[in-house]
Write a structure and sequence with these properties.
The protein is an alpha+beta fold. The protein is built from 20 helices and 8 strands. The protein has a 4-stranded antiparallel β-sheet, with helices on one face. The protein has a 4-stranded antiparallel β-sheet with strand order 6-5-7-8, with no helix packed on it. The longest helix is centred in the first third of the chain and has 33 residues.
């Protein structure tokens, strides 16, 4: 008779701990070797009296330990979940486990607790051993950093363990469950990225200079790059929710589904859609890159290659779900394939021929409250050459440049463009519309349009406002670089010697000198747009790479004591600024 009130079985927990002891013992050994042992060896090599040097190294070792958490957790979570729930993937084992006198909730909760203990116990032991080593060597001040790292490891494991258990519950095969677990680590970041690539293939003027990073949708990518603590709590919460969802599915799981690629109807439908979508775009992009010999025509050849991926994706996923290659006889499979093809062709046609007029849209001057333009750097970066224009005449000038860019594209719509590009000569436009909306575009505009925009960057008032915003507030070193020096040879001709770095004689006066040059019209905003097209407009001459630059070393960045270099290009006409760097 089944036990109807128990949610936990100590006997099963002991059995799990003994049966799968090699897994959690190896985890414990790996953690001990990674932190306590390596830390102890490093401390023995240091000179005891040099405490000021050793302390930062200890802190760095603890930070590296915290950063390595995802690499450990993602592997261990999959192993533990696979071992504890592998009985669901074999018919005989599934019937045997469900024949025991315990309800499914008890079986599930006991297995989940077992998996968590497989991680918590090694983590706790590793933390205690490390604490003993730190205290014995006089580094008790690092205890907070140590246990913060331990806490992060626990949160990371909870996230991955929830994903792993959910993946094992979806499938009736350990191999397919493992593949699902791997897919969950990146699919939510990959699908939006692939969609954005597809849109960028056909949407001329798409501006992705504002953060288009979907890496945070994949916990492992965000953790490996280092994410905020609140985001770790969010990922851990997602893992906990998935454990609850997996439990609810387990209560309804059919035992005879052991061996199936997907154990639930909704999962089989979702698998077909996601697999087909991934194969359609992934194989389409791959074949276009390999076989699309004429890069300018890539938007023309993508569709047939994407159709090949659609065929493979839809019928391949159908074979995996149905566990047979005889899927071509089913009418429902052909209907689903026809829907996929219609969606693919319709989407590409709408993008390529701009059916809804989105790409051709240029707002009227009366609809625009202000417009921002910039040519390099991210939109939110203080070092981007972003300027704001509010005068209707200036807005109308930008609109004219915008319209000319669209006309140039319409003459050659299959022109190649690079994804995530910051191409020399691109101009980013951001209209702030009446009513609070925005419209963003980026174009490689015709060369003759640069002069219309150069006047804005040379305007003394605009330039002074930009330099005041861009000059770093907190720096301890500034130099003038790329200044060409010449010497006179025996025949009286100037001979190039070197491009040297000159240190500022009076850094406290630098800001006022730069602003004075800008207000006097001697220092326009030197940027990629102006310098790369060899303009000759009086105040703006020469090549971008020949301009001298102010190199700032910032000692405080993002709240941490690290060095960061900031480079701001200037012109030799900035006499007051250059005078602060003249050779003595």
């Amino acid at each position: 008779m089944k036990l109807k009130t128990s949610f936990f079985d100590p006997a099963l927990l002991k059995k799990n701990l003994s049966r799968f002891s090699p897994a959690w013992i190896l985890t414990l050994v790996g953690m001990i070797l990674f932190l306590p042992v390596s830390l102890m060896i490093a401390l023995q090599r240091e000179i005891p009296v040099v405490h000021e040097i050793t302390l930062p190294r200890v802190q760095r070792a603890l930070r590296e330990f915290a950063e390595a958490g995802p690499s450990f957790a993602i592997v261990c979570a999959l192993i533990f979940a696979g071992l504890l729930f592998k009985y669901l993937h074999k018919t005989r084992a599934a019937y045997m486990m469900h024949a025991f006198p315990m309800i499914r909730t008890c079986l599930y909760c006991t297995n989940v607790v077992s998996g968590l203990l497989f991680w918590l116990v090694p983590t706790l032991v590793t933390g205690l051993l490390t604490q003993i080593i730190l205290s014995a060597n006089g580094f008790s001040a690092c205890s907070g950093l140590l246990w913060a790292a331990m806490g992060k490891w626990v949160l990371q494991f909870l996230c991955f363990f929830g994903i792993a258990v959910f993946a094992m519950m979806l499938s009736g095969s350990t191999i397919i469950g493992t593949l699902c677990y791997g897919a969950f680590q990146g699919i939510f970041a990959l699908l939006p990225t692939m969609t954005l690539v597809l849109v960028e293939y056909y949407f001329h003027g798409l501006d992705i200079s504002v953060d288009a990073d979907f890496g945070y949708l994949a916990p492992v990518f965000a953790m490996l790059r280092g994410c905020a603590t609140w985001l770790l709590w969010l990922y851990a919460g997602i893992g906990l929710v998935l454990l609850v969802v997996a439990w609810l599915h387990y209560l309804r799981r059919d035992i005879e589904r052991a061996g199936d690629a997907m154990a639930y109807r909704w999962a089989r439908i979702a698998f077909r859609i996601v697999f087909t979508y991934s194969m359609t775009l992934g194989l389409g992009f791959l074949l276009t890159g390999i076989l699309g010999f004429v890069n300018e025509e890539r938007s023309l050849v993508l569709l047939p290659y994407a159709l090949i991926g659609c065929v493979i994706g839809w019928f391949g996923s159908s074979m995996m779900v149905e566990r047979t290659v005889k899927v071509f006889r089913k009418k429902s499979v052909w209907v689903g394939f026809a829907i996929c093809v219609a969606l693919l062709v319709g989407t590409i046609a709408c993008l390529k021929y701009d059916v809804f007029g989105v790409q051709r849209r240029v707002p009227e001057t009366a609809q625009v409250e202000s417009v921002e333009i910039w040519t390099e750097g991210d939109y939110n970066s203080p070092y981007a050459d972003r300027i704001t224009l509010t005068d209707p005449a200036d807005i109308n000038t930008v609109r004219t440049v915008h319209q000319n860019a669209i006309k140039a594209w319409q003459k050659n719509p299959d022109r190649a463009s690079d994804f995530f590009r910051y191409t020399v000569g691109d101009i980013h436009i951001c209209y702030h519309l009446a009513g609070g909306g925005t419209l963003r575009r980026v174009y490689e505009i015709p060369k003759e349009n640069y002069k219309a925009l150069a006047q804005f960057y040379a305007d003394p008032e605009i330039a002074a406002a930009w330099y005041e915003r861009a000059l770093p507030e907190n720096f301890y070193y500034v130099a003038l670089c790329s200044v060409e020096e010449y010497e006179t040879d025996e025949y009286g001709n100037p001979t190039y010697t070197a491009s040297r770095e000159r240190e500022c004689r009076d850094p406290s006066a630098l800001r006022e000198a730069v602003l004075a040059d800008a207000r006097a019209g001697r220092l326009p905003i030197v940027n990629c747009l102006i310098g790369s097209v060899d303009l000759d407009t009086g105040a703006i001459r020469g090549s971008y790479w020949e301009h001298p630059s102010l190199e700032f070393e910032n000692a405080s960045y993002s709240g941490q004591e690290v060095k960061k270099w900031v480079s701001i290009h200037i012109l030799e006409t900035a006499t007051e600024t250059i005078a602060l760097f003249e050779k003595e």
